[in-house]
Amino acid sequence: MDETGLRVGQVAERSGLTVRTLHHYDRLGLVCPSDRTSGGHRLYGPADLERLYIVVGLRELGLSLERVGEVVSGALTVAETLEHQRVALDLQIAALTRARDRVLHAQRADGELDLLELMKEVVMSNTFEQYFDADQIVQLQRRRAEIGEQRIAEVENAWPELMARVDAAIAAGTEPQSEEGRALAGEWAALLEEFHGGDPGLRDSLFRMYEENRSQIETEWSGPSQRQLDFISAAQR
Amino acid sequence: MDETGLRVGQVAERSGLTVRTLHHYDRLGLVCPSDRTSGGHRLYGPADLERLYIVVGLRELGLSLERVGEVVSGALTVAETLEHQRVALDLQIAALTRARDRVLHAQRADGELDLLELMKEVVMSNTFEQYFDADQIVQLQRRRAEIGEQRIAEVENAWPELMARVDAAIAAGTEPQSEEGRALAGEWAALLEEFHGGDPGLRDSLFRMYEENRSQIETEWSGPSQRQLDFISAAQR
DNA sequence: CTTGAAACTGACGTAGCGTCAGGGTCTAGC
DNA sequence: GCTAGACCCTGACGCTACGTCAGTTTCAAG
Fold first, then answer.
1. Which nucleotide is the nearest neighbour of A28, by CA and C1'?
2. How far is B102 from chain A (nearest CA, A)?
3. B118 and chain A: CB distance < 8 Å anywhere?
4. d(Cα A162, Cα A164) in Å, to the nearest integer?
5. What is the mean pLDDT of residues B85-102?
6. A203, A232, B3, B66 - which has most CB atoms within 10 Å?
């Protein structure tokens, strides 16, 4: 008759979970109280609580209950699970961040929902996903986080300004191979580098996307024109 | 018998959705094809497609199907919906980012899952959430994104270094009010400012948390000692 | 008229519990 | 011993946004 131990309600209060949740974990076999009263009420002992806290801790990492079960039972190695989870979280964060960016963009349309803008955004990001795989998108997201929003805004503002100066140089008849031309090409390359961070995979994907969607990017996204690209590539030779 | 229009399969192919999804939207009343063949097959006209693309666009913003329905029916204002959605996405991103940080922290325990570390993390973030509300957590997250990870790492490394110099000053018998003492206090305030960004609400919450968990923070998180705090506050007077 | 592809309408499954519904159990006070 | 009130029990359905059969019917070409 050693009916010591906490009842569900008390465990719920201490752990911040609900009684229903504890029932759920019990049924799934995650945390089963090792004792019951004669009337069938659950009694949680110290070992049960320890297991419960392990489960809670793993859940805070965002693992599903199924994974948690596999980890506590030893069916999954911890290191591998953590690595998978990190990647999964990166992907989710990237997806949500893109949604947030789209919302911000739509909000700029001030009151009226600009469906055309929204569709352009959507088409754009779909195009984007054709050329960059999940890992690359996560990689880009990481770079953005490392660099910080201020620097990103600076770079985005720098592009039209640089493109204007390139246009001016072309109009003035500047030789691409001249010192001025090569300086412009250097700036151009530096801005590109801010995007792909020197990763050849990212750079190639970006270039392929550019090649295959040139006219659309030029007209709808005010990207660089063919003349500008020609000038820059001539200067880089 | 003007049975023109696209069938579900064709619409699915063009929109990137599945046939099942189109059935689902039809049943929910979101996008109901305005025509059917005599045999009952769905026929989507141009107006239906337009409505479908609006729905798809709104879904890409992360809105639930219910919200999408309310927006397209005009029951919800667009501006308000977008603002709510932005906040909701911020909260989700913040939650996932915290989970990711915890995973990274657990991974540093190298192979062996350090449950004690994990529990400390969890307890810490629970403590944190007692003192900062959802808006403030989002605000902090935004600040971190703006500043960039490099700067954050710099600041985190700067703390122990500064604390060491303060200790040295105390050991050398430096007066808090001396020029050297006030310089240290200035650096101290600048590092704090990096955290709260000058927001008085954030600063007060942080101070309250510090006050009420002083011993724990000092021992488990190698935070500043009482002696150091006394020196700094004396120097600031 | 046949045949293969495509479409139709249910209906169940998913993750992690919330939320009744319709009971028993525990315990303090009388 | 009895009862009231608080607590606990075990089902069972609900929610999101579809995926995935299953069994039947329609379409379009030969």
1. C16
2. 6
3. yes
4. 5
5. 92
6. A232
Which residues fall within 8 angstroms of residue A29, CB to CB, at 6 or more apart?
Answer: A69
C-alpha angle with apex B84: B80 to B89, nearest 5 degrees? Answer: 145
In this structure, is the CB of residue A65 within 7 Å of any atom belonging to strand C? yes
pLDDT for A100-136, tens place per residue? 988 888 887 655 656 667 777 777 777 777 788 777 8
What is the nearest CA distance from B37 to chain A, expressed in angstroms? 30
Q: Which pLDDT value is given to residue B134?
A: 72
Spatial contact of A217 and A210, defined as CB atoms under 8 Å apart: yes
Task: List protein-proximal bases of chain C (any atom < 7 A from a CB).
Answer: 6-9, 15-19, 24-26
> Which pLDDT score, from 0 to 100, does residue A40 have?
95
> Could you give the CA distance from residue B177 to residue B188 in angstroms, rounded to a whole number?
15
Distance A7 CA to C23 C1' (A): 19
Cβ of B149 under 8 Å from any chain A Cβ?
A: yes
Q: Can you tell me the distance from the alpha carbon of B12 to that of B208, in angstroms, rounded to the nearest whole number?
A: 56
Interface contact B83, partner A, CB < 8 A = yes
pLDDT band for A1, please (50, 70, 90 cuts): very low
CA distance A48 to A215: 64
How many percent of chain A have pLDDT more than 70? 95
**CB–CB of B138/B224 below 8 Å?**
no
Residue type, B3: E
CA B44 to C1' C3 (Å) is 27
What's the pLDDT at B109? 67
pLDDT of residue B165: 92
**pLDDT at residue B40, rounded to an integer:** 95
Q: How far apart are CA A50 and CA A67, in angstroms?
A: 18
Cβ separation B82–A119 shorter than 8 A: no
Q: What are phi and psi of A35, to 5 degrees?
A: -145, 160
Distance CA B43, CA B40 (A): 9
**Whose CA is closest to B183, among B175, B173, B172?**
B175
Nucleotide with the nearest C1' to B43 CA: C7
Chain D bases near protein CB atoms (7 A cut-off): 7-10, 16-21, 25-27
Residue A213 corresponds to which tokens in the numbers above? 């969607």
